[in-house]
């Protein structure tokens, strides 16, 4: 057992905490030893009153004694609905102390992303990406840690922190290896659920525990009692102190303070009085003690509990309807009664902030307010916050507590608060405001609009909920014209995200049929074709492509609806293997001066990211890689500058990787695709973006000759049937088949390719580059069924010539050469080299060179192929070329 501390110890909660203090001391020493040392997270977990706050205070003392900068923050039970509340407490003071220009220069590109969440910059008009804001806050800590090193961050009552702070904390904990900072978190084991619990547990899992923090032993309680009341305290009295408090340090301190106030003697004869004294320090006893201080003091304490944070005498006076002098007097009384105290950071001239001595007291006072009065006081507090110019978002936590009363001003305030929350990256806070606005309720004329706003707020976080909101809104009057079209389009997006693609198609198709406005109908038809175009599993209507071609034929690209149809027609033609030149011509007509039109950009929400992705993919598979790569790079830059670091950024990295892969830059492709998967992990598995990154990474690793790595990635990320309902480029079945062949599972690979054949036929997707099932199957069947293999190779060459790109024809010729022997094989291999030399796809060119060199027994061609393969990073191809050269020289 840890040695019992002697008399004179500053805090009861530090008794029997020697091991914890030693851990804290080592962590501080490690931080101070080296600027490049990795960060550390320590977690103090224990029940209320067990001494977590005292450990944080001791951490501050130790850290400041060693010259550290220490910032602290605290969660609050009534403040959990305030987004970024705790992280603002933590970081805002340091940033506010800078000049605005200095803060902007210091945070760089992250200023406009993280600044609004921290309250140091005005939010933009666009909805912020929550993941981007979270990453911006992590980046802010990294930069502040370099500036303020050695830096210690402390969060008390983390179980009551807001969701946005806990998400940031989990993200910071993941990246502490690159941030030299000490983070100390104190929390209770319960009092948190859902996403908050997940984030908090994730952060704790990355750190080291302080504890478990247990109650004081009888010996320690006796030592503390004698240190407080004198060495003459009798053993029986000390044992009763422990029995009454259960060794809880906070309750022990409060009880001993009551003993001192009551002049009770610490002798066995008076030990029976301890239980009554203990009851007066908690729960109903605390409330009774508060009432003894007078009506004004009770009102002051109630108002402080309503405010929860940022408690000042002036603000409390206004809420409690007290004059300034009476309020100051009440504050002193409550401080003397150990109900309120002055926080450490407020001990500066002119600062009159207050806080509750302990969260248990704050909770007891808040719960003691009569229900009706508590609701009324929240309403008054909301008005005070609004009148103070703090904005609708700041007032919204109080409005959420007010009873619905058909108040349209409250509806307007909550809608404004939701917009503010969305602008700083807090969609869950926006959802709560809009759900509360619906309870008011809004007037019939605006009810559907509020539902639409709610659906937009939950689109990315809860698509199933969004569907219900938008369907209800569309069934009500109030959404007309463009608003109705926007709502239908958003509904179809939510259905897509919820893996209800067929329903998404039916939704826009039905609305297009009944909408009388030609321009609106065109937009809806374009949306229908867009969702149909990315559907991987549905059997294609024989007339779909013809109808789309007919619609697009009359489009000049004069507006975004026409441009969308041109892109969709181009993508459809590309996947069907129609003339690549016609595909490019359609895509070019959809651009404005060679660029995406306003409203069709990567971060524009009117159409979403699907259209520019289809456009760039069409260029990528028609050998116009310069245009494709420009678009992919533009997407990456747009999402990074806008702070969109969730699914959009994951897809951007995946498609940049696709561009590298098509170009033959395999090392760069692998790097981009692994970055995509790291981001996708944070978004959630099983989504289409996950499949795009995984499929392309497996394809790239196989091209590099890294078969075991490819198998590891496939196993780790579930790259196996069933496949997603949305199209993945390239088609995952041939890629998985190549992996199966490479690992000796030939029969399974053949089955995969035959399934790819059926799926491609059902959708009419005959592009031999996007879905290269025929060439792969021909190679696999060459030995056991050469007749079928030859027919497949011939069909693949016909499809390639129809499509017309150098890559497609060259790859078909490579396949044909592999099925032949002698001089015919040499001639076909030479033709393949000719085509692929003109292609931008350098890996395929390298492979053709090596195969030609082997067929022709040409050391010169093998050396050319080896050099190309080495420049691509195709290690397996390099090894094959060297082996062939060695065999040739030996001969």
TrEMBL record:
GO terms for molecular function: ATP binding. Gene3D superfamilies: Tetratricopeptide repeat domain. The lineage of its organism: Bacteria, Bacillati, Actinomycetota, Actinomycetes, Kitasatosporales. Residues 16-184 form the Orc1-like AAA ATPase domain. This is ATP-binding protein. The keyword rRNA-binding does not apply. PANTHER family: TESTICULAR SOLUBLE ADENYLYL CYCLASE, TRANSCRIPTIONAL ACTIVATOR DOMAIN. The keyword Nucleotide-binding applies. It comes from the Bacteria. Keywords: ATP-binding, Nucleotide-binding.
């Amino acid at each position: 057992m840890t040695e019992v501390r002697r008399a004179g110890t500053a805090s009861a909660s530090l008794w029997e905490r020697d091991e914890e203090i030693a851990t804290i001391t080592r962590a501080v020493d490690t931080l101070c030893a080296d600027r490049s040392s990795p960060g550390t997270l320590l977690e103090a977990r224990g029940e209320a009153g067990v001494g977590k706050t005292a450990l944080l205070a001791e951490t501050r003392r130790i850290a400041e004694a060693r010259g550290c900068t220490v910032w602290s923050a605290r969660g609050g039970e009534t403040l959990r609905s305030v987004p970024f509340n705790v992280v603002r407490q933590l970081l805002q003071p340091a940033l506010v102390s800078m000049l605005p220009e200095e803060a902007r220069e210091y945070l760089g590109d992250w200023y406009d992303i993280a600044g609004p969440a921290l309250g140091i910059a005005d939010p933009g008009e666009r909805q912020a990406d929550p993941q981007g804001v979270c990453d911006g806050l992590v980046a802010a800590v990294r930069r502040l840690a370099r500036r303020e090193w050695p830096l210690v961050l402390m969060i008390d009552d983390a179980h009551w922190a807001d969701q946005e702070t806990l998400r940031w904390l989990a993200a910071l904990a993941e990246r502490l290896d690159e941030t030299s900072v000490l983070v100390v978190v104190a929390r209770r084991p319960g009092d948190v659920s859902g996403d908050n619990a997940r984030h908090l547990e994730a952060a704790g899992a990355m750190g080291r525990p302080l504890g478990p923090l247990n109650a004081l032993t009888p010996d320690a309680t006796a030592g503390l009692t004698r240190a407080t009341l004198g060495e003459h305290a009798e053993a029986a009295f000390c044992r009763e102190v422990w029995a009454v408090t259960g060794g809880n340090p906070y309750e022990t301190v409060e009880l001993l303070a009551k003993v001192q106030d009551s002049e009770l003697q610490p002798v066995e004869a008076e030990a029976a009085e301890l239980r009554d004294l203990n009851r007066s320090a908690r729960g109903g006893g605390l409330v009774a003690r508060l009432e003894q201080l007078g009506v004004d003091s009770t009102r002051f304490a109630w108002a402080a509990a309503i405010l929860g944070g940022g408690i000042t005498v002036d603000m409390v006076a206004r809420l409690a309807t007290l004059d300034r002098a009476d309020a100051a007097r009440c504050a002193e009384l409550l401080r003397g009664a150990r109900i309120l105290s002055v926080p450490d950071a407020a001990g500066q001239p002119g600062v009159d902030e207050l806080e509750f001595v302990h969260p248990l007291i704050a909770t007891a006072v808040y719960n003691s307010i009569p229900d009706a009065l508590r609701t009324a006081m929240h309403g008054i507090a909301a008005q005070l916050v609004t009148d103070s110019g703090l904005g609708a978002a700041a007032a919204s936590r109080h409005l959420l507590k007010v009873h619905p009363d058909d108040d349209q001003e409250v509806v307007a305030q909550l809608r404004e608060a939701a917009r503010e929350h969305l602008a700083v990256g807090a969609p869950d806070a926006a959802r709560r405001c809009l759900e509360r606005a619906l309870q008011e309720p809004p007037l019939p004329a605006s009810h559907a609009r509020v539902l639409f706003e709610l659906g937009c707020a939950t689109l990315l976080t809860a698509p199933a909920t969004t569907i219900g909101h938008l369907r209800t809104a569309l069934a009500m009057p109030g959404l007309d014209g463009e608003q109705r079209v926007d709502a239908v389009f958003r509904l179809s997006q939510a259905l897509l995200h919820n893996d209800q693609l067929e329903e998404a198609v039916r939704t826009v198709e039905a609305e297009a049929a009944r909408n009388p406005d030609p321009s609106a109908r065109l937009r809806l038809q374009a949306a229908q074709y867009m969702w149909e175009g990315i559907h991987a599993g549905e059997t294609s209507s024989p007339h779909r492509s013809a109808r789309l071609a007919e619609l697009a034929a009359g489009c000049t690209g004069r507006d975004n609806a026409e441009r969308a149809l041109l892109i969709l027609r181009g993508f459809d033609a590309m996947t069907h293997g129609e003339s690549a030149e016609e595909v490019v011509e359609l895509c070019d007509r959809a651009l404005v001066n060679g660029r995406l039109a306003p409203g069709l950009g990567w971060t524009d929400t009117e159409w979403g990211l699907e259209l520019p992705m289809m456009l760039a993919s069409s260029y990528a598979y028609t050998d116009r890689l310069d245009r494709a790569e420009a678009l992919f790079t533009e997407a990456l830059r747009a999402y990074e500058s806008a702070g969109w670091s969730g699914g959009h950024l994951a897809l951007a990295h995946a498609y940049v990787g696709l561009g590298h892969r098509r170009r033959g830059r395999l090392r760069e492709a692998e790097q981009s695709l692994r970055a995509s998967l790291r981001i996708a992990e944070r978004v959630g598995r099983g989504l289409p973006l996950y499949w795009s990154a995984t499929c392309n990474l497996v394809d790239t690793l196989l091209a590099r000759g890294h078969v075991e790595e490819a198998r590891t990635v496939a196993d780790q990320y579930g790259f196996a049937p069933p496949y997603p309902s949305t199209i993945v480029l390239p088609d995952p079945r041939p890629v998985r088949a190549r992996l199966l062949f490479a690992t000796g599972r030939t029969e399974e690979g053949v089955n995969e390719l035959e399934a790819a054949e059926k799926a491609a036929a059902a959708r009419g997707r005959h592009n031999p580059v996007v879905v290269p099932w025929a060439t792969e199957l021909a190679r696999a069947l060459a030995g056991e069924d050469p007749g079928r293999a030859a027919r497949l190779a011939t069909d693949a060459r016909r499809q390639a010539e129809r499509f017309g790109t150098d890559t497609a024809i060259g790859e078909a010729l490579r396949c044909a050469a592999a099925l032949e022997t002698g001089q015919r094989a040499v001639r076909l291999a030479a033709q393949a080299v000719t085509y692929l030399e003109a292609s931008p796809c350098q890996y395929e060119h390298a492979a053709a060179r090596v195969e030609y060199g082997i067929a022709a027994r040409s050391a010169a061609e093998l050396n050319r192929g080896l050099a190309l393969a080495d420049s691509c990073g195709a290690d397996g191809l390099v090894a094959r070329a060297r082996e062939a050269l060695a065999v040739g020289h030996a001969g």
